Amino acid sequence: MSPAKLEAVTSIVSRLSDDLQYGTLQPEKRDTLLEELKIYGRDPSFADPIFTKDGIKTLSRHAFDSSSDTTAQNALRVLCNALLLKPETRQSFVSTGYALKACRRLQNNNPDDEFLVSRLLLLSTYGTNIDMPKLVEAEQLANTLANNLARHAERLSSESTSKANANPMLDMALVETLKLFFNATQYAPDNISSFEPAIPHITTILCSLSLPSQQTKTPLDPPFGLLINALMNLKFSSSTAKDAVYPPSSPFSVADRLIQLLVLSMKAYSSADLEQIVSPLVCVLSAVHEDAPAPVRKSIRDALLPTESDREDVLGKTDTLPSRLLRNWTNPEAPELGKAISHLYFDMSDKDPSTFVKNVGYGYASGFLFQKGINIDPHTIKNSEEAEGSDGVREIRRPVNPITGQFLDTEKPVEMPEMTDEEKEREAERLFVLFERLKKTGIIDVQNPVEQAMREGQFEELSDDE
Q1: From CA 139, how far away is CA 104, in angstroms rounded?
Q2: Are 142 and 191 a contacting pair, CB within 8 Å?
Q3: pLDDT tens per residue across span 391-446
Q4: What is the pLDDT of residues 263-274, one digit of tens each?
Q5: What secondary structure does DSSP assign to 320-351, as a single string?
């Protein structure tokens, strides 16, 4: 079968190539050959002619120069499969120059074309020298993607949409469009403003879809995770963006939807999955908070800052959303998520170190502040009614341990056996050595408490027999 397969593939690619030059094939026969080639191409073994530069060019010409939609789509299916299975073919396609025509075909308002061409362009962004800014500027790719998303937003927000009669290709096309949208914003960062018209459509889709169930194990499966990614690189500071993210008729809708997804995600995903899947959600929520009007900022803080019930114990010990976020602050399996969470909480504290420590405790805040080069002594921060009425901190009416964030009146005394004299002496020696090492690093300038105690006569010299 293998030599026979190679012979068949070679013959089909040759006939398709000759057809481009001489017009030797009838439309039905051409489409039949492309269908056969698609089947052969599912397994790249003994199908080499498909994956050569000439093979990719032949398929590209049938995909974008044919007057028949059927022929074009059949060729596109073979092309997409080739670029998926053989990464080296991606540069071969980009080198043909047909990415420009692909952008034009993406304007057809046809779900099959949208699905196939979006996937083709998406695959072409990996490991190639594709000029994404040129596609955005010369072929208006950003506008095309926005228009395609607009149609999906209109469809999904319509109350008359019937799931029973829905075309599954429409949902598949939406998924590929969102993937391409994210990659386009990644590879054309200087053209990011060109993608702004898509924001209203992305937020409409985000808020129109039914939330995943409480029992789902993957709440950010497509399209939710892809909608979040599509917002990742965008700015929300312009009036157009603000009207979309904080619409006057329902200014809390987008922020509330993001928080709902965050609640589901923090419960559903394991530590290994949080890093890649949930980090973008936290980043987008941070961006939404940054440009939000005051009432929306307050609603986000009310949902994410530790509550009084959280402070009945050391922060991060309860099962609430704020506690789950704090526990992942230093999750070694999700360092980027930890960074995103710490930046979000610093922003919710109005970027004020004192407020930041009040909100999360010095234990969580210290590492972030050290990386930022901000020095602050937690014991200099008043810890009770002083926070009342502050915009950046939840109102606290009871004294709080500035290190742990726990209410002082709920702390339990630590029961430890009395140390022997030898243990006390060894502990004093360890402390002395530790502080001497810290002083030599230059990181801190602190009085060694053991040395100070010796000078103040708090140490007693014992005889050898004592």
Answers
A1: 7
A2: yes
A3: 555 666 666 666 776 666 566 665 667 777 777 778 777 777 776 776 666 655 55
A4: 999 999 998 899
A5: SHHHHHHHGGG-TT-HHHHHHHHHHHHHHTTT
